[in-house]
């Protein structure tokens, strides 16, 4: 079991590395630049000896002319290489991130509805934003700083061994001891920062809830209660943050103290060597400079593990989604459904989400242009039934046919082109009204858009906005009423001009007056289309040619309104219930 998981992870890393391959030339140049930067650092430490011994002690005039020039050249070349390395590495890093982000989003868009219903929106968003950023941090630290730091450490190590190999051996033993706390503190910081992130996530969702539901908070007089809850949440976050501060603030001084111990010893031992004449001050200071310069790259390398661990975890989360396969599969030899009026047939259809069967043995035949109403108590399976037609989900058993063609043998694109949907929650995108009406029909002429708006009874109110069809939905904020939004959605469906229409509680959330307008718009929309209409209020399905009553996922009654009323069965009961409650209301 464990072996398998290691294998998968390796594959994923290969894919991540595969993304880098396209940029290998840039990567190579960047490495060249890194080598130059590292070499310049080592050379600087190396130069301390000639500066001290030749210029200051021996007062060598030739060296006095030479060394400043060499220093200027070194720093100029170093600056150029540093820029080149940063630019090239970030170019590679950013382009990997772009490709990863794109392929993640492209893949998510192709996953079925069930995926979006199972996963939390916030989590999916953080996969595309946060997780990809964490991977970028890993790629850029692993390649940019890690390689440079490795080279620098190597170069400086050569210098310290060259200057005094015995002292160098000692330093090599002591330094890791000094850096041990860095690693230890790093682990703790990570644990606490995870806690901070969780506390912050709690606060975010709390804010979201209490802002959206602020009306209810006020109506129930719960302001003080919510303030108290918020107070305790920020208190928890404060505690966590301070813990992180303590760990971070302690780590530096402790490390520096340990480093200081080591340096004190080097000074003691090295100084003794100089005084006894075994070494020169130049050698000693060159050695010291190299050791001090080691501090920074070694510290960074010790943090590398953290960012790699975090990056790998994020890589796993991202690839978990990228590797997820859609269970709505298109046949290789899929046929294209032509655009014309269609007959829709359900043949012994069974359907389940995960556990219990939601639809059982559904048999329906809807003629082209027929309006079929689906009624029944909430939870009866009406939405699930219509969701099968555009293959938002696939039937568990049985077949759904459009003009005799099993929808699973058709291309998904041509299938969905046949279907227009208007649901209860009128979803509009934050763009212009024109864009929203023409959604799915890019390039529609303005005449067609206006015609659709008129037929949807939306033209007049749209023309009341200063920018008319170019008004953006965001600009309007909450100013569009439910009925107005719904009429824009109907215009969108009208413009799509699909032969099959699904109306799922399209008027249920509206008040009676806007319902009247939406109803009129819907009547225009339904003309000549094969329609599945789900309605909560039975009074709104008077025009249906046929009514099907669904109960617990089964068809329990079928027929015209009069016929079903005469039968005095389930439909009659539903009708009675609504009729009575309507009477009581008025
Ligand atoms: N995404 C889902 N995952 C699991 N169960 C679901 C899902 N959507 C609906 N259900 C369940 O399927 C049954 C039918 O729901 P639905 O088709 O929405 O009924 P209706 O539209 O008639 O109110 C209900 O028991 C509901 O809880
Ligand atoms: Mg429903």
- Alpha carbon gyration radius: 36 Å
**Major sheet details:** 6 strands, mixed
How many helices? The count is 19
Q: Which architecture of the largest domain per CATH?
A: 3-Layer(aba) Sandwich
Regarding quaternary structure, what we see is single chain
The fraction of residues assigned to DSSP E strands is 5-15%
**Sequence of strands across the biggest β-sheet:** 6-7-8-3-9-10
| Mean pLDDT over the residues | 84
CATH superfamily membership of the largest domain, which one?
P-loop containing nucleotide triphosphate hydrolases
Total number of beta strands: 10
Number of domains: 3
Overall 3D form: elongated
Topology order in helix (H) and strand (E) letters: HHHHHHHHHEEEHEEHEHHHHHEHEEEHH
Task: Report how far the terminal alpha carbons are from each other.
Answer: 66 Å
CATH topology of the largest domain: Rossmann fold
Please mark out the parts with pLDDT under 50 across 5 or more consecutive residues, or reply none: 1-7
Helix content: 55-70%
Helix/strand layout:
Layout (H helix, E strand, L loop, with lengths): L1 H20 L2 H34 L3 H50 L2 H6 L2 H43 L1 H48 L1 H6 L3 H53 L5 H42 L21 E9 L4 E10 L4 E5 L6 H6 L9 E6 L2 E2 L5 H6 L1 E5 L9 H5 L8 H10 L3 H6 L8 H4 L5 H15 L3 E5 L7 H15 L3 E5 L11 E6 L2 E6 L1 H7 L2 H16 L1
Helix pairs in contact: 1-9, 2-3, 2-5, 2-9, 3-5, 3-9, 5-6, 5-9, 6-8, 6-9, 13-16, 16-17, 18-19
Bound molecules: adenosine-5'-diphosphate (ADP) and magnesium ion (MG).
Can you walk me through this structure?
Helices cover 67% and strands 10% of the residues. It is of the alpha/beta class and 586 residues long. The chain has three domains: 1-163 and 296-326, Up-down Bundle (ABC transporter transmembrane region fold); 165-278; 344-585, P-loop containing nucleotide triphosphate hydrolases (Rossmann fold), CATH 3.40.50. Strands 6-7-8-3-9-10 form a six-stranded mixed β-sheet. The chain has a four-stranded antiparallel β-sheet with strand order 2-1-4-5, with no helix packed on it. A hairpin with a 2-residue loop joins strand 4 (397-402) and strand 5. Helix 2 (24-57) packs antiparallel against helix 9, helix 3 (61-110) runs parallel beside helix 9 and helix 6 runs antiparallel to helix 8.
